[in-house]
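Hey, I was hoping to borrow your eyes for a little while. I've been staring at a protein lately and its backbone has me curious. You're getting the sequence in one-letter code plus the fold written as C-alpha cells. Would you mind checking whether the C-alpha cells look sensible for this chain? Here's the protein in full, and shout if anything looks odd to you:
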Amino acid sequence: MQDIEGGQRQSDPRLSVLERAAEVLHVRLETLLSDRDMRADTECVDAAELAEIRATLHRHDVLTGAFVKSDPVDMDALRRNVAYGWMAFQASDYSPLGRVLPPLIVDANRAAVQADGNAQRSAQALLTLVYQLTVAAATKFGDDALAWHAADRAITAAERSGDAVAIAGAARHVCDAMFHRGNSREAVDFATATASQHERDLVRTSQGLSVLGMLYLKASMAAAHAEHRSEVSVLLEAAGDAAERLGVDGNALWTAFGPTNVSIHRVSALARMNHGADAVAAAAQIEQTGLNALPRERRAAHLVDVARGLTQAGRREEAVTKLLEAEREAPEEVHCRPRTRQLVEDLRLLGAGSAEGRLRGLAGRCGLPA
C-alpha cells in the first residue's frame, strides 16, 4: 500500500491486490493500472462525480418535491454542511465536493418542502446557496451544461425566498454560467437588470453590498469575454463603489468581496481581453496585505491570471514561475482546472526558455501527456 500511495506499482501485480488497493485508496482501478501521476485523481472532482451531481439534479423527488415522508431535516446540521462545502471550495479543497454536493442537494430540497411560512423562505435561501456552490464547482471543472442547470435552480429557489440578497447572489452565478456558455451579452444584461431592480435593498447591509459588488464583477468578466473594454470599466467602477461603501475585504456569504477582489478582477478582465502587459501592471499595484486576506482559491486564481498576462506579454519564463507560485498556494487550482491546464499546455507549445524543465514537471503534475 505504501508503494502504491507513493506512485509505484508492482511489476506483475495480481488484479485482486490492485482492486483492494483501489477500494482502500478510494480511487478507480484504472488509475492504479495507469503510469500517469495519481495526483489529479485525488485532488479533483472527476467526470464520474460530476455525473453523480447531475443525476441528483434529475432525481424525481428533487424535481417534484415528492419526498418519502421522513424525519425533519436538521437545519443546524444542514447549515453546517453548506458552510463546510463553501469553505472547502474557498480553500481549493475540491475533492470533497463530489461527495458532499449530492446529499446536500437532496437534504436542502427536502428541507424546503418540509418547511412553511418564514421557515420555508429561509430554507429556500439555504437551497439557493447549495445550488450556487454547485454552479461554482461545475464552472471550475469546465462542465458548463451542469453549471447552467444548477444556476437555473439557484435563481428559482432565490426568487421563492423573496430575499433580495439571495436573488442577487444567485444572479451572479446565473451570469457566470451564461457567459461560460457563450452568452456574454445576455449575461451582462441579466446581471445589470438584477442589480438595478434590487440595489436599493442591497446597499443597506454588508451582505447586500457584497453580493451586489460580485454581481457587477461577474458582469465585468462577461463583458471582458466579449472584449467590450469600455463596458468592463463601467462595471468595475460600479463594483468599486460597492467595495468602497463596504470598506473592508470581507467574505460575506462566501463572496470574498472587497476592494482587493475588485482589483484582482481588473487583472483578470485585462488578461481575458489579451491585454497582458496591462494585466501585469495592474497586478503590481495590488497590496500583498489585501491579497493575504483573500481565500486560497482567489489568491491562486489571481496568480494564474497574472501568469496568463505574462504569457501574453511574451514573458514566458516569468509566467512559469507565477504558475508554480499558484501551485504552491493551491495545487488543485492548477492541476484540476481545465483553463489553467490549457495555459500550461500553451506554454509548452510556445516554449519557456530556461524554465522548460520546471514547466515539464508542472505539466506532469497536471496529468498532461509527455
Notes: The CA atoms of residues 246 and 310 lie 32 Å apart.
